[in-house]
């Protein structure tokens, strides 16, 4: 076996698909790319997200306490990377990258029509925000875009490369301990 630096452990334990996070304050929406997030629990549905002060969306999220997590498909790969390479304090990223939006139901941040799914969220815990830039969000509404033909998601490997979802392994009949979950 070859040893690699411990600082690269995230490349092996990548938490899930790369996502887009929308926020809005004073009528000005923004979108950012995020790779560090995790499910914390099933019910209520809690999501942990790392968004730091280096991100333009950080202060808006702190001020408003709400956002949308949008899950893009593989066909948005280049757009997702490009959104992450620029700052919303200098431009309207929705216009620049042609992302189509629609209003959310419970939060001021917009949904992204181009994505596979959108999750409306509200902050429920900020005790880990100052030391670790970790926001705990509760999902309040989930929207699925069933019309999307491209259903594969991308998982960032931390070096500019991505793993892409492929097939599905169905082991539901073996998951006896978790049958009570939806």
TrEMBL record:
Membrane-crossing residue ranges in chain numbering: none
GO molecular function: FMN binding; oxidoreductase activity, acting on the CH-NH group of donors, NAD or NADP as acceptor
Pfam families (UniProt xref): Flavin_Reduct
Domain Flavin reductase like span(s) in chain numbering: 11-162
Domain of life: Bacteria
Matches recorded under SMART domains: Flavin_Reduct
Cofactor(s) needed: FMN
Keywords from the named record: Flavoprotein
InterPro entries with a match to the protein in the record: Flavin_Rdtase-like_dom, Flavoredoxin, Split_barrel_FMN-bd
Similarity remark: Belongs to the flavoredoxin family.
Record's protein name: Flavin reductase family protein
Species this protein is from: Ensifer canadensis
Lineage summary: Bacteria, Pseudomonadati, Pseudomonadota, Alphaproteobacteria, Hyphomicrobiales
């Amino acid at each position: 076996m070859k040893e690699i630096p411990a600082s690269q452990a995230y490349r092996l334990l990548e938490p899930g698909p790369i996502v887009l996070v929308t926020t809005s304050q004073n009528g000005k929406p923004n979108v950012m790319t995020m790779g560090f997030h995790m499910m914390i629990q099933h019910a209520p549905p809690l999501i942990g997200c790392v968004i730091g002060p280096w991100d333009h969306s950080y202060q808006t999220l702190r001020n408003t306490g709400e956002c949308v997590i949008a899950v893009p498909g593989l066909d948005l790969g280049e757009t997702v990377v490009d959104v992450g390479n620029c700052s919303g304090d200098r431009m309207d990223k929705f216009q620049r990258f042609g992302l189509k939006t629609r209003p959310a139901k419970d939060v001021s941040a917009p949904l992204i029509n181009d994505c596979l799914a959108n999750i409306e969220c509200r902050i429920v815990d900020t005790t880990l925000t100052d030391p670790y830039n970790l926001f705990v969000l509760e999902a309040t509404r989930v929207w699925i875009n069933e019309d999307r033909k491209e259903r594969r998601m991308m998982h960032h490997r931390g070096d500019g490369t991505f793993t892409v979802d492929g097939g599905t392994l169905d082991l539901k009949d073996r998951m006896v301990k978790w049958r009570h979950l939806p």
